[in-house]
Write a structure and sequence with these properties.
Shape: globular
Largest sheet: 6 strands, mixed
Structural class: alpha+beta
Radius of gyration: 20 Å
CATH architecture: Roll
Low-confidence stretches: 5-24, 160-176
Number of domains: 1
Strand content: 25-35%
CATH class: Alpha Beta
Length: 176
Amino acid sequence: MKKQICISVFFLIAAFSTKLLTAQSHCNPKDSVAIRKVINEFNDAWTAKDPVRYAAVFASDADWENAFGGHLRGRDSIQNTYQKLMSQFSTAEETITRIQVFCMSSDFALVDIYQTVDGQKLPKSGRIVPTRHLRMSDVYQKINGKWQVKVHRVTDLRERGQNQNNANQTDSTKNN
């Protein structure tokens, strides 16, 4: 009897976990398309080096943080700082390697964008940074029917024990 209860509880937990996982990672088709359009506009605006377009994908009260600890709040601050960052990426080639979208509710989604950056220049020395592998983890929120980036975090993905990416690069600015 005890064994049957344990087995039953195990199957209930497994069924609930599967249902929860499916609910969190599945977007309805309309939201999925809308979120992908925001991702594309974010990338296109960055590539075009257009601060107005870039900032437009963010919520008015967005929270933005880069891999170096630079932190901004609000769309206006993001737009004003964006132009300063572009000199570091004028020679950079950025390639998105993977995108994962997890809808957590009808109004919130977690979006992970993985990319490589080749040819980034440091602002003071002009030195080329070794190839970087990044993950941008964003929380998207549907505000008045429109998906926007509410929280944006950039993480350098490094192998443990190696400081090859951005090691001893003291001339990088806080907001890069």
